[in-house]
Protein: Hydroxysteroid 11-beta-dehydrogenase 1-like protein
Amino acid sequence: MNIYAKLLLLCSIGVAFIAVRWSATSFNEESLKGARVLVTGASTGIGEQLAYQYARLGAQLVITARRGNVLEEVVRKCKEMGAQKAFFIPADMASPPDAERVVQYAIEQLGGLDFLVLNHIGPSPYSMWNGDVEHTRWLLQVNFLSYLQMAQKALPTLEKSKGSIVVVSSLLGKICGPFTLPYAATKFALNGFFGGLQHELAMQKSNVSITICILGLIDTDSAMEKIKGYINMTAYPAHESARHIVEAGASRQPEAFYPWYTFYACLFRDWFPYFRDLAIQNSYTYNP
Ligand SMILES: NC(=O)c1ccc[n+]([C@@H]2O[C@H](COP(=O)([O-])OP(=O)(O)OC[C@H]3O[C@@H](n4cnc5c(N)ncnc54)[C@H](OP(=O)(O)O)[C@@H]3O)[C@@H](O)[C@H]2O)c1
Structure:
């Protein structure tokens, strides 16, 4: 085979790979009618949009976050949008008993669970690391350990219902960047833990699927406020990201990427580390 034939073959394989990667998933919207769903961090941002996506498709919902008055309003909108049932439970994931209490409440209200959607994050500064170990310890409880507690509590009921755990993670849990060290550490931890759990569940022939969602920059108020003055890049719409997450969970994809560039960033992450790191450092503004 001459060099041109080899190049053509390589290009064809590349195109086929990309086409398969982005081809439509087998997502049947009807399958979510009546589905029993618990969404965390649903008072605002992507979590709020997730609640609306499930509501629109006729799911039964329990939503949680700390602010009960805001959750009450989200529940009202979910009912208007078509949720078969919608309840809320205020909880602080910094408090370990709250994580299990929320899952227990959802199981009682809905008679079981089909989807556990883990999305909440605690507030964390967007700045150079100041050496505050205690903040990272606290954030690990909110962003990581509470996810494990909720998954552990929900697994028996998800096993019965052939259900799914959906973990909302970040490109910053795959590729290191500046200014978000404690946050990124919790996201790397999530990817490592739930990626490993995917193997263990498969080896045990479990009915439960896990979908890990890798998100890039999304236009939520909290994200936009944080990056102001540090980085200038396109933020993608929260409702679109929520639609992708719901679809990926329902079609039991092991890993989902939104927006498109996150997939390629992960694919090529280790090919040219010197240029990757240069590009990352040059894309931020730093004025000490
Ligand atoms: N936005 C982005 O650019 C982006 C990029 C990549 C990944 N993600 C991921 O997407 C998910 C959602 O991000 P987002 O931008 O929508 O976040 P957000 O707007 O800051 O919302 C965070 C949610 O978590 C809740 N929360 C905060 N502290 C809590 C605590 N101690 N206990 C329980 N709930 C708590 C908040 O509600 P209360 O204040 O009422 O508690 C809120 O509902 C996160 O997992 C994030 O890592 C986001």
User: Anything to note?
Assistant: The two ends are 57 Å apart (CA to CA). DSSP finds ten helices and seven strands in the chain. Residues 41-47, 65-67, 70, 91-94, 119-122, 142, 168, 170, 215, 217-218, 220, 222-223 surround NAP (CB under 6 Å).
